[in-house]
Amino acid sequence: MNILNFLEKKDISPTPIVPTQTLTSNTLVFLIAIMTFLSALTFGGLILVQKSASAWSSDISREVTIQIMPIEGELMDANLRLAETIAQATSGVSNAQALSIEESEALLKPWLGEELDLTDLNIPRLVVVKLSDPLNADLLSLKNELKIIKGARLDTHDAWRDQLNTMAKTIIISGMLIFLLIVVATLLAVFFATRSTMSSSRQTVDVLHFIGASNRFVAKEFGSRFLRIGLKGSLIGGISAIIFYMLLGFITSSYLPSSSTEQITALFGTFSLSLWDIFAILSLVPIIALLTAYTSRLTVRRFLKQIAW
Amino acid sequence: MIEFNNVSLRYGDGPTILRDISFSIKKGSFHFLTGSSGAGKTSLLRLLLLSLKPSEGKMSMLGQEISKLDRDRLLQLRRHIGIVFQEFKLLDHLSTFENVALPLRVLGQQPKEYEENVKELLNWVGLGERMHALPNVLSGGEKQRAAIARAVISRPDILLADEPTGNVDPELSERLLHLFAELNRMGTTIIIATHELSMIKKFNYPQIALKDGGIIIR
Ligand SMILES: Nc1ncnc2c1ncn2[C@@H]1O[C@H](COP(=O)(O)OP(=O)(O)O)[C@@H](O)[C@H]1O
Ligand SMILES: [Mg+2]
């Protein structure tokens, strides 16, 4: 909390003309801290969604799967081998490999539980086809050639990916909206707090005018007070949000049972924010502080214009 | 230096407080502004401080007709006027030193520049020891002197004081008046509102007397 002390104390320069420690200012610091925390959470959430969505789509586009349905009279293992061979011969494919029963079980375990045993079940089997060149892979000919295997179907995940993108976009747009609303609510609170501070400081404002202060001077004094409040609040909020994300990452990686971790990881990627993401979240701090100072300065100007000399 | 021509003053739609007042005050003079409570002394001082505009009539100060001045010029003009309020109006969270330094701070001076001046003035009004005290621990007389020091720190051409001896004992009020007389000798034009007859008699400066909205100069 050294930084905060530093912001509070300015030994070298004279006492601020507008009192710094009042109930309104403490409440406002608290409110801005909460608002910054919420916007940082929204913002961080957006970053995570954006990251997982693009990670997913690029993973998905590097891979297609061939699904082979079990059909009476067909030999699954032979068909799997045939599908592998066909796929490997297709241009743009780097590798094709059928999943063993164990691998299928491992894939489904996070969703269906530990005791899963697929050996007796007649389930569709998968051939995972890795693409070396997703854009130029000849998936159309692969699809045509697979027609010779009964029950085989090529899944390029296109529909899945489109849906994923739409979902991610929806989440991001809603998130932005929430983010905007939080910022607007914060500024409204700042507006009202400034007005109330101004009217309770009417005496001070009058004295300043009588001893020859310009409106500019008065606005600057109030503005710098609110800048300090904004900085303090947004710093507390921003840092709390980062601590929150770190804890969340820590908890998901070390405390949750591994199967839920796998689900969460499968869905969201890891809850880890890169340095760059932390930087982006911290960039909210000066933005909110400056917006606070600017809003209060405008409010002060309007207030001063209203009171006649 | 100060010219009033048929000045009248009303608050909103209320009764006329000052009616058709004309007078002029020369540079370097010393006047008492007298009248019973409610006669309009404070109102006249506010006109002189440019914190009220006359409802009618013309006034000019320091050679400038004030109705012709814009906000900035009014501000410039006001910086030539020092005021001691009846209720002091010191800022509670600032020390005596900082209260007195305020007019210089407002002009953009840095602590380095004004520190010596402010200390010197505080010693002169006998507040050297109370420099770091906050107003609410000062006695009435000390507040009064702090308010006077704040009014004169920027060396105004005109000093206005609203009943500066109203809250202090006779001995101190005499000392305060000597202080004003001293400032006057150094060239400041002084107008002091008061209703204390003993002071007026003792010091025998010319009076602007308010009665029934009009004035008598004597
Ligand atoms: N802000 C104001 N609004 C309305 N009336 C006022 C205001 N200030 C003073 N008055 C009225 O003007 C009259 C003169 O008051 P004031 O100038 O304070 O007299 P004094 O200082 O001589 O006691 C009083 O009747 C008072 O009620
Ligand atoms: Mg009065």
List its traits.
heterodimer, A: 309 residues, alpha+beta, 2 domains, four-stranded antiparallel sheet, 4 strands, B: 218 residues, alpha/beta, Rossmann fold, six-stranded mixed sheet, 10 strands, globular, binds adenosine-5'-diphosphate, binds magnesium ion
Tell me the radius of gyration of chain B: 17 Å
| Approximate strand percentage of chain A | 5-15%
Q: If strands are numbered along the chain, what order do they take across the biggest sheet of chain B?
A: 6-7-8-3-9-10
Query: Which stretches of chain A of 5+ consecutive residues score pLDDT under 50?
Result: none
Order of helices and strands of chain A: HHEHEHEHEHHHHHH
**Sheet having the most strands of chain A:** 4 strands, antiparallel
Q: Please tell me the total number of domains of chain B.
A: 1
Q: What class would the helix/strand composition of chain A place it in?
A: alpha+beta
- SSE order of chain B, one letter for each helix or strand: EEEHEEHEHHHEHEHEE
How much of the sequence lies in strands of chain B comes to 25-35%
- The secondary-structure class of chain B comes to alpha/beta
Tell me the greatest interface: A-B, 19 and 27 residues
Ligand inventory reads: adenosine-5'-diphosphate, magnesium ion
Report mean pLDDT of chain B, rounded to a whole number: 91
- Say how many strands of chain B there are: 10
| Annotated CATH architecture of chain B | 3-Layer(aba) Sandwich
Q: In which order are the strands of the major sheet of chain A placed? A: 2-3-1-4
